[in-house]
Write a structure and sequence with these properties.
single chain, 3 strands, Rossmann fold, about 120 residues
Length: about 120
C-alpha cells in the first residue's frame, strides 16, 4: 500500500516509475539496460540484500544514477556509513510532500538547471 501511494505521488510529480516487488526484481530491472534517473529504495528489503546493497548494484550499472534511501530502522549514521556516495536519505515516517520535495530537488530533468542542486 505504501509503495502504491509513493508511486502515485511521484507519477503526479512527473516521474515515470518502475516498481519492483523484491530486491531481485529491482536487480532484473536494472540489468535490463533501461536508464533510470533515480533509485528510491527502502534500506530493509527483508530477506536477501539490503537497500544499501541495491544502491551499490545500481551504481555499478549506471554510475550517475541518483540513489535515495528511506528507512524506519536505519538512521542517518547507517546511511553515511553504508550508503553510496552522493546519495540521499529520508527517515520514516515521512510525508509524501517531503518525499516529493526531496525527489525533485535534483536529478529530475526539468529541474537540472535549478540553483538548489547539490554536488557529489
Amino acid at each position: 500500500m505504501l509503495t502504491s501511494m509513493i508511486e502515485e505521488e511521484l507519477t503526479k510529480a512527473g516521474f515515470a516509475c518502475v516498481r519492483a516487488a523484491s530486491d531481485r526484481g529491482a536487480q532484473r530491472a536494472l540489468e535490463a539496460g533501461q536508464p533510470f534517473d533515480v533509485l528510491l529504495t527502502d534500506v530493509n528489503l527483508g530477506e536477501g540484500v539490503t537497500g544499501f546493497d541495491l544502491g551499490r548494484f545500481a551504481r555499478r550499472r549506471q554510475p550517475h544514477m541518483r540513489i535515495v534511501y528511506m528507512s524506519g530502522e536505519a538512521d542517518a549514521r547507517d546511511w553515511m556509513t553504508f550508503g553510496v556516495q552522493g546519495s540521499d536519505y529520508i527517515a520514516k515516517p515521512f510525508t509524501l510532500d517531503n518525499l516529493r520535495a526531496l525527489m525533485t530537488r535534483r536529478g529530475a530533468p526539468e529541474l537540472e538547471d535549478s540553483a538548489d542542486t547539490q554536488t557529489d
